[in-house]
Amino acid sequence: MRVSSVLASWNDGATKRAVVEFVERTVSDAVPFEERVAVFDNDGTLWCEKPVPIQADFILRRLFEMAEADPQLRGRQPWKAAYERDYGWLGTVLSEHYEGDDTKVRTLLGGVLAAHAGIGVEDFEAQSDEFLRTVQHPTLGRGYLQCAYVPMVELLAYLEANGFTNYIASGGGRDFMRPITQEVYGIPRERVIGSATALEYASNDTGGTITRKAEADYLDDGPQKPIRIWSRTGRRPLLAAGNSNGDIPMLEFSHHADKPTLRLLVLHDDADREFDYTSGSAQALERADTNGWTVVSIKHDWAVVF
Amino acid sequence: MRVSSVLASWNDGATKRAVVEFVERTVSDAVPFEERVAVFDNDGTLWCEKPVPIQADFILRRLFEMAEADPQLRGRQPWKAAYERDYGWLGTVLSEHYEGDDTKVRTLLGGVLAAHAGIGVEDFEAQSDEFLRTVQHPTLGRGYLQCAYVPMVELLAYLEANGFTNYIASGGGRDFMRPITQEVYGIPRERVIGSATALEYASNDTGGTITRKAEADYLDDGPQKPIRIWSRTGRRPLLAAGNSNGDIPMLEFSHHADKPTLRLLVLHDDADREFDYTSGSAQALERADTNGWTVVSIKHDWAVVF
Fold this sequence. Notes:
The structure is a homodimer. By secondary structure, chain A is of the alpha/beta class. Helix content of chain A is 43%, strand content 17%. The first copy, chain A, has 13 helices and 8 strands. In chain A, strands 1, 2, 3, 4, 5, 6, 7 and 8 form an 8-stranded mixed sheet that branches. In chain A, a hairpin with a 6-residue loop joins strand 3 (192-202) and strand 4 (209-218). In chain A, helix 7 crosses helix 9. The longest helix of chain A has 16 residues, at 54-69. The first copy, chain A, is globular, with a radius of gyration of 20 Å. At the A-B interface, helix 9, strand 3, helix 10 and helix 11 of A face helix 9, strand 3, helix 10 and helix 11 of B.
């Protein structure tokens, strides 16, 4: 396979060389196919996460609907922010989270869990699917399904062509992403690892139903990422790609003393074509520097973003 | 593919015909490959579970070691039963569980969770792997790895040859089975769904470690089976195979109004070649009768068992 064509949207340079050298070494070392596991964070790594993560827009619309239907909710967070379209409050949730204060995260999470409680998993997917296929990104002038990074989609295909099995290991909701990952990333639904709500099974005459409860099963972020990757795959990945502090344990875990490994950290430094921010990724960038992880500069390493 | 050769250990009759007709209909209806999902319970469905489940032997040996090292444990269940090799007490755990009384299950579970608490997941697998490759079944005169049912292994291969993806959805421990499922069943480790203990990640300079905690994450039995199948695969299976009451929700969930489906229930009715028991499966057998699920009689449907 000619690298120039498969990674066509990557500029020549040290980053692209690191990727190609890693893949070529995996092949030349004849690492068994079943060990060629690669894991990717989703928001900010495979697709855009600004001004808010795509799933946040999905949930905010649902909270808005709930507040429209029930005026009492309009005075309570997170319904208040959703109803008033107060992105400022929502922005502070993330920034305070990255600074270690999860008070607002818990408030938000209560709303997030209530937003789709009691809905069957198949109905939830149909809602997510419709949202993702119809809604436009607020500033980029493209639909959400077109917000995946073309160079990363090329990387996924390049890895697969070289015997890798790609997984998504996202802090976002597993069931939110599943309906579109095959089409957008070539990653089938069973290889989506992500945060999950607790589920409930009820028997009936037509195959039973699984519904979402108003409680989290687990939040797939930070130290949960290696745990969930192990639980799902039973392996340590060779390659891990992320963009934020929550990805540090996953990148760290993708370590082998005796096999090629690659840790990628996407740096958002391109205000013209995407966004320019390092909030939530300062520690990860430090670790990249200390440990020799490969930083992917959107501005310098990608000829095309979308 | 000639059915006579792939299902060579199945006697001709209604059961074998039901299996073949289901597979041929799936193919002739051109059900998309990604929807051809089949799930199998393990203990009593893919391999022998008597006189005690194979994993119980593994755990009892560890409890015995613990009681040898610490005399105080010898007076406490389940260490007492393990130390005195009191299979009677252990038998009542299961029989009382099937009658709805889980008092002893909780006592046993406390011991089970303590038995391997604090061990790294990779070390745990190495112990399980060694046990399964070296220990003999207590009465069948064969090693544990030779306790898989040949007709079921043939069925797995027949399904795979027809585009199915097979998963194990076991009440047994996921991490206990993983080291041997590829070799014994042709099912790779990432397609093993089973009970799981809670895990903990700790950072270090060599890729971090994941260790087992002394608490369950979930017990993959009864209504948890469809939940865990959905969580892992994002699909309703076309085929489900089990042998006990704990498999009822999984069999029920494998329902499609518009696609071929097959529900198999293995009936242990062959005291000469294996074991003869229905304890723990009475309700499942009733449901098979009511709902037209296919009962697989070991005595009548299998020409060879092991």
